[in-house]
């Protein structure tokens, strides 16, 4: 190599593959710090160590590879698929809550979607893309099933006119994704990406409505050096 701009995440993984314990943690932490500094000074365009895991990999949260994420919305064939992907990949909504979200809780005028979590509510503030996709879905749904009384935001051919008003099946949601990818992985990737970007557990809690313990887990994965000296 003639420049560090040529380094890829695969190169770093190859270097760390045969290391373990303290040796692995020290080298991985050094690589993370090095490439973060180079990126900050704009000496490299992309940080290959951004998602580099430090320490034991067992049970560690891992981001979805960027090549799997690229073009998901472009390849989604229906308004149903595009809105489902946006809710998981942009707003980190769990699959269960995507299934049970209600049309009455979507307010396009305000640009919000309220998610029901037991007695609690979590408000999503829809950015332009998701707002556009939600509007497209509502238009499509009304044109396709104008007589549907199902209160759920997402409906399918089977559930739209079902008098029992069921939520769409989880498998129906999963079918919008290519093989090897799940909505849970998209959600995990989104939260982990935000943790790498901000390192702020309070922001993660506010943005995604997750618990303190969950937020700390993601931040600990993104920045293990911050928690390495905490008592166990």
Automatic annotation (TrEMBL):
Keywords: DNA-binding. Residues 1-39 form the Core-binding (CB) domain. This is Core-binding (CB) domain-containing protein.
């Amino acid at each position: 190599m003639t420049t560090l701009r040529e380094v890829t995440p695969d190169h770093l993984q190859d270097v760390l593959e045969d290391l373990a314990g303290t040796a692995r943690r020290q080298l991985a932490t050094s690589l993370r710090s090095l490439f973060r500094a180079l990126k900050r000074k704009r000496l490299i365009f992309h940080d290959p160590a951004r998602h580099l895991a430090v320490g034991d990999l067992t049970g560690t949260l891992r981001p979805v590879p960027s090549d799997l994420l690229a073009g998901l919305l472009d390849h989604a064939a229906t308004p149903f698929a595009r809105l489902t992907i946006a809710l998981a990949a942009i707003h980190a909504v769990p699959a269960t809550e995507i299934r049970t979200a209600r049309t009455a809780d979507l307010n396009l005028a305000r640009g919000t979607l309220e998610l029901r979590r037991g007695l609690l509510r979590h408000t999503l503030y829809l950015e332009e893309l998701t707002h556009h996709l939600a509007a497209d879905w509502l238009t499509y749904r009304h044109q396709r099933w104008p007589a549907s009384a199902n209160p759920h935001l997402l409906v399918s051919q089977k559930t739209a006119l079902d008098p029992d008003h069921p939520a769409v099946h989880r498998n129906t949601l999963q079918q919008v994704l290519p093989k090897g990818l799940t909505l849970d992985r998209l959600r995990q990737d989104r939260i982990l990406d935000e943790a790498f970007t901000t390192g702020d557990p309070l922001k993660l809690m506010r943005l995604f409505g997750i618990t303190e313990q969950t937020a700390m887990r993601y931040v600990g994965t993104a920045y293990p050096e911050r928690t390495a000296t905490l008592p166990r």
